[in-house]
């Protein structure tokens, strides 16, 4: 194998240690950091995510409360719950599991979460801070893409980063987050002609599409850093957007799937709870 493997699990373990140390310090100051998760309905994946968040958070020393509401819950009741959590000083982070049932407006619910407790980084105010470069709470997956590069000791400033995908969750916020790191940025999407021409220019190639193994080895510049944010279900397992087995012979550094970008997301959500506490203190 030519490429160095970027070990997302090991990086996540380091971030968890940092987060746990900060939780201990806060507890000495009498603050018990707490994440509240709101789950409406019984979407099986959401139930699994909520429970795994609970386990991860508890291990890090966080308080955790799951508000699991029936699928028939009315929008006003969800809004009222979030407003109550916004005003609850013992709750430092709020996360709403998606998807919500169809009769509930995702946009309205997201806008109701206090921007200072929005650990998923979805509130329009936090989205605005990504553009303005101000401190805010930013989404975990694009943050993870940047962390795996930085923590591997690889430079971003001055490098040409090519992002494939402009989705609201990963690609679009990542454009501005990596621009802040002083990369030169190209964004590709489904209407980009000759995608391979662009991807071959990349010093840092980030895939955030949702199409299994679509980035082939001949689309990668030899020695490039390849970061795969894609999660695709195939043959009872998961794979990324990059054709890993072939790509690792060309790339200089590469993240696997699983074991790459996705390994960091829960740790980064909890790190956002701590960042939220700092931002909440500044507002007081
Ligand atoms: P979206 O579905 O919102 O966006 C996908 C993007 O890919 C769109 O911008 C689309 O272009 C582009 N695209 C689709 N087909 C092509 C193509 N053939 N060539 C070039 N671009 C194409 O995705 P998300 O941003 O929500 O997620 C992206 C990936 O990240 C998914 O695989 C998802 O599973 C994964 N993910 C991973 C997480 C993790 O923890 N690791 C968390 C969240 C998501 P257009 O805009 O023109 O339609």
TrEMBL record:
Belongs to the tetrahydrofolate dehydrogenase/cyclohydrolase family. Its EC number is 1.5.1.5, 3.5.4.9. SUPFAM superfamilies: Aminoacid dehydrogenase-like, N-terminal domain, NAD(P)-binding Rossmann-fold domains. Residues 6-120 form the Tetrahydrofolate dehydrogenase/cyclohydrolase catalytic domain. The lineage of its organism: Bacteria, Bacillati, Bacillota, Clostridia, Eubacteriales. Residues 139-278 form the Tetrahydrofolate dehydrogenase/cyclohydrolase NAD(P)-binding domain. NADP(+) binds at residues 165-167, 231. The keyword Phosphoprotein does not apply. Keywords: Amino-acid biosynthesis, Histidine biosynthesis, Hydrolase, Methionine biosynthesis, Multifunctional enzyme, NADP, One-carbon metabolism, Oxidoreductase, Purine biosynthesis. It catalyses: (6R)-5,10-methylene-5,6,7,8-tetrahydrofolate + NADP(+) = (6R)-5,10-methenyltetrahydrofolate + NADPH; (6R)-5,10-methenyltetrahydrofolate + H2O = (6R)-10-formyltetrahydrofolate + H(+). PANTHER family: C-1-TETRAHYDROFOLATE SYNTHASE, CYTOPLASMIC, C-1-TETRAHYDROFOLATE SYNTHASE, CYTOPLASMIC-RELATED. This is Bifunctional protein FolD. GO terms for biological process: L-histidine biosynthetic process; methionine biosynthetic process; purine nucleotide biosynthetic process; tetrahydrofolate interconversion. Pathway: One-carbon metabolism; tetrahydrofolate interconversion.
């Amino acid at each position: 194998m030519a490429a160095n493997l970027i070990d997302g699990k090991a990086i996540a373990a380091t971030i968890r240690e940092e987060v746990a140390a900060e939780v201990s310090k806060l507890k000495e100051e009498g603050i018990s950091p707490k994440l509240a998760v709101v789950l409406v309905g019984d979407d099986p994946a959401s139930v699994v995510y909520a429970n795994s968040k609970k386990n991860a958070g508890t291990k890090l020393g966080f308080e955790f409360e799951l508000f699991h509401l029936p699928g028939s819950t009315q929008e006003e009741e969800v809004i009222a719950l979030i407003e109550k959590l916004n005003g609850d000083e013992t709750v430092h982070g709020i996360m709403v599991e998606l998807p919500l049932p169809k009769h509930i407006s995702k946009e309205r619910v997201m806008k109701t979460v206090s921007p200072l407790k929005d650990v998923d980084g979805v509130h329009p105010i936090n989205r605005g801070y990504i553009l303005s470069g101000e401190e805010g709470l930013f989404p975990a997956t694009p943050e993870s893409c940047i962390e795996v590069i930085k923590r591997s000791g690889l430079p971003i400033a001055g490098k040409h980063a090519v992002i494939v995908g402009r989705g609201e969750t990963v690609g679009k916020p990542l454009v501005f987050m990596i621009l802040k790191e002083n990369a030169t940025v190209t964004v590709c999407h489904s209407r980009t002609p000759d995608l391979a021409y662009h991807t071959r220019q990349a010093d840092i190639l980030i895939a955030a599409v949702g199409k299994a193994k679509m980035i082939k080895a001949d689309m990668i510049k030899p020695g490039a850093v390849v970061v795969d944010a894609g999660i695709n279900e195939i043959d009872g397992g998961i794979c990324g957007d990059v054709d890993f087995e072939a790509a690792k012979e060309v790339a200089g550094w590469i993240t696997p799937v699983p074991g790459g970008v996705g390994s960091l997301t829960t740790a980064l959500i909890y790190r956002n709870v701590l960042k939220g506490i700092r931002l909440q203190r500044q507002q007081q």
